[in-house]
Structures are given as C-alpha cells and as structure tokens.
Prior knowledge:
globular; alpha/beta; 29% helix
Amino acid sequence: MELKFNNGKFRIMQIADVQDTQKTSDDTVRFIREALKMAKPDLVVFTGDQVKGYGFYLMGGDNKKKVTECINKFLTPLDETGIPFTFVFGNHDDEQGVSREELFRMYKLYGGKYCLAYDADPALTGVGTHNLTVKSSDEKKIAYNLYMFDSNSYVYDNEGERLGYDCVHEDQIEWYKNTAKELKTANGGETVKAMAFQHIIVQEINELMFYEFPFALGEATRNYDGKSYTYLPFAYNIKDGFLLEAPCPGYYNYGQFDAFVETGDVVAVFSGHDHLNSFTVEKDGVDIVNTPSTSFGTYGDPSTRGIRMLTINEADTSVYESEMLTVSEYVFGDGEHLTEFGDFSKGDAVLGLFEKDFFNLYLQLTDIIYMLTGIKM
C-alpha cells in the first residue's frame, strides 16, 4: 500500500500512549474511532506504549493471549475504516514478557495490509526502526518522508540500577543519515523533507524548558549523563500547547537531534511518553513536539487526553499544520461531537478547556513580560 498526497495534502494522525492493560478501555477505543471518523487521516502513527506491559502480571493468566486481545481491540477502528497505520514501541510495551519481536509479528498479523511498519534493519538497536515515503499527487516522485524510531526502554549502571530512560542509539542515527542521503540522491540532489516519530522525547527538551544546575542534588534535580536540571520550567520557548509535567527524555544523548539539524530534512520530531503534555518548542529550525496520552486507563486528568492531527501541504513541505483533537472538545462541542465519554462529564470538559485556555493566556503574558523587560520566565 503506497502513501501519496491527495489533492495536495497529506494528513497524519498521531496516537500516543494508548497504554491500557489487557482490556483496553472502551472509552479509549471510542475516542480513536470518533477521531478517525472526524479527521479522516491518510496515515495513523502510534508512538509507543500501546500496551502497559507491567499491568498484565497483576491479572495472571496467559500474557501472550491477553496482549493479542489488547492489540486487536485498539486496532479495530483502523480495520473498520481501512486507514493504514504504522507504529513504534515505547518503554512499557514489552514489560509483560512478550518480546518486541513477537509483538511486532502480532501487529503485522492483525493489521494485515493496513500495517505498513517493517524493521528496516534487524541488526539495529531496538525493533522496528523504519521509514515510509509519501509520493507526490502525480506519483512521479517521492515528495515526503516519515521516520519511525524505536527509542528503546531503559538504561542501567554496572550494578544493574536503573539510570533512566533510553534513547535512539548511534547505529540508528547512522541508518537515518544514510537513508536521508539515499533519498536526496534519488530526488536529484534535493533534500526530501521529513518528520520523525518516536516514543521518548529528545534530550534537548531539557535545555529548552528547564534551568540547568551546576551539579546534581539527588531527587531535587533531574539528572542525566553529566547534566542536571531543576524542576523550574520557563515557558517562553513554548510555541503552543501546555506543560503539566516534567518531560522524561533519555539519560544519554547520542546526537540524534544534532543529526536532524545537520542533515536538514526533519522539520519536526513527535513524541508521546509524557502523558499530560501537549506542546511545541523549536530549536535550530526543528520542532520538538509532545503529544498527550489517548488513554482513559492511565494516570492524570482525563481532560488532557488528545490525538494530534498533522497536515502537510505538497506546495511547501518545509512547514506543516498541527491540530489537537482533545476529549474536552469532543464532549463540550457544538452539537456535532460526542456528549459523553463514560464517566467523563461536560463539567470535566469545561474544566479541561479552561485549563488549556488559562495556560495559553499565561504564555501570552510571559511573552509580553519578556518583550518589555527582557526577563525570561
């Protein structure tokens, strides 16, 4: 199944952190189904933690059978619509004892021709790193490219103590650079613009959002390989959206983002992982975008749940449009949206919309203060 621009547009739906246990929430599936019906994307990208693996052990029984049922359930709306999809893994997907390799086979088996994911090079770190090309409307050339990275799970010290989350590794970055080079050559020397999708956000988010501290203070600072950051955020870098929890990037940084900047093809990198955040920041011409959880079965206020829609214009692939389909807007809509989502009421929706509007007002005020005083908040 080939991807291509339709009437000059290509629309991608990012679904982050479905992350339910062996029985995916009916509300989560309903949210996905209604979003697909309304937005009609050309491609769906699941960006990891589709399965909350560690929750399976609490229930007992055959984990492989249960995870199969879970995957089948949240993919059902795509099967019903015939919309193609791809995916990457998160840190929780394989924590129920079913390997990434076996999970990958499950997606391919259930998704059939609609599952476009593949493992570009099984020798690479992780499972399922790949890219998908999008042809021009006339199908004469490759007009766009989509990278899917397995950002892996956790890293440990020599004693087996967990240091933090993992990230995209050097061999995957080398694969990326080679792929971009091959596409550029095939495109007559012109760079093919691209987006990147992965579960764990790039480490550069720390320097954009938090004050660095000269040394580690244990639990009082957020500590990475050679760097420490406070929990005090500054908002002036946020282009849109909201920050409701500290992002959790990888402990190490092998230079993935620098490779994006140097290569010049990636316009934005999209992650999930941090369930309550929905923001866009920019560094060196590349957007770093966090999309909140879709799930009704995980931590946090349900009013933050959302699905991101991305629209690329064939006439200018260096830019894109981004829109959040939030559950609050579905519930508290104009009569065309749903009126209820299980226990999620109109009152909850009003509060969710208020929180989002209040944070946007805060961003505007900090921008004004910065312009008038030079003080960054």
